Amino acid sequence: MQFFKNPNYKIIQKRKIGYFFSGTLILISIISLILHGGPRYNIDFTGGTLIQLKFEKAVKIQDVRSALGKGGYKDTEIKHYGSPNEIAIRAGLGRTEEEISNSIEEIIQKAIPDNHFVVQRVEKVGPKIGHELIIDALLAIFWAMILILIYVMWRFEFKFSVGAIIALMHDVTITIGVFSVFNLEISAPIIAAVLTIVGYSLNDTIVVYDRIRENMRASKKNLQDFGGTINRSINETLSRTIITSGTTLLVVIVLYFFGGEVLRNFALALIIGIVIGTYSSIFIASPIVLDWKVKKA
C-alpha cells in the first residue's frame, strides 16, 4: 500500500528547521525539569502507603477515585485487587500509615455508605525502595542505549549508530519533558512506555538506514550526492513509516480514551513517543549522518 505516490520532499534541505524545532522542544523540556526539580515521580518511586480493602459488593474504581480526590487524595493509585469487590489504594508519604489509613477509610465510608468494607492490610513502602527503582530504570535505559549503539555500529557504520542514539535521546528527553511541562507523574508503566518508544523509534530509523545503505551501494558511495541519496531514501520509506506509525497511533489513541484512568498516562507517553519517534527518524537520525559524513570528508 502506497500512502504517498512518488514523494520527493526536500527533507534534507530543510534539516536545519528540524534541528531548530527539536532544539526548542528539548530546551523547553530541560527548563521545565529544572523548574520542577526533576521529573515528578509517583509512589512507585517515592514510596507510600498501600491499603487493601474488601467490600461486600463490587465497587467501581471511579467512585473511590472521585471520593478520595474530593478528600485531598488526588494522586492516589487505585486498582482492583483480584476481584471486583477488592481494591488496593496506594497513597503518598507525608503522614504515618495509620493516619492515612484512617483518613481514607473515613472518606470512603461517607462516600459509599451502602457498601461495607474491611481493611485487609496496610503496608508502608519507604523511599529507599523507590530510589532503587529509579536507579534500575535509568540503568535499563542506559544499557538499552549502549546495546543499540553496538548493534547499529555492527550492522551499519559508527556514524549511523551515533545518529540513532541522538535521535533516541531526543525522543526520551521530549517525552519526559512533556510530562514535566504538564506536571504529570512518572510511574513504572511510564518507564516501560519509554523503553517501548526506544524500540519503536529505532525500528523506524533502521528501515531508513537500510534504504540509505542500499542506495549508497547503487550509487557507489558517491559522497557528492550523499545528501540526495539520504533524501531519496527517506522519501522511499516515507509511505511505510507513516502507515505503520499511523495505525499504531490509532490503537494507542483508543487506549488513551477508553483504557481507563490507570492506563491513560501510559497511553499518553506512547502517543508522544510515536509522534516524536516518527519525526526524529525522518528529520534527526538521517540528517545527522549526512552532517557527520560531510564534516569528516
Q: Can you characterise this structure?
A:
The protein has 297 residues and is α+β, with helices and mostly antiparallel strands. It has two domains: 12-41 and 129-296, Multidrug efflux transporter AcrB transmembrane fold, CATH 1.20.1640.10; 48-125, Alpha-Beta Plaits, CATH 3.30.70.3400. It has helices at residues 15-35, 43-46, 61-70, 97-111, 127-155, 158-181, 188-218, 226-258, 261-283, 285-296, and strands spanning 40-41, 48-55, 77-80, 86-91, 117-125, 185-186. A four-stranded antiparallel sheet has the order 3-4-2-5. A two-stranded parallel sheet has the order 1-6.
Task: Please name the defining characteristics of this protein.
single chain; 297 residues; alpha+beta; Multidrug efflux transporter AcrB transmembrane fold; Alpha-Beta Plaits; 2 domains; 4-stranded antiparallel β-sheet; two-stranded parallel sheet; 10 helices; 6 strands; 10% strand; elongated
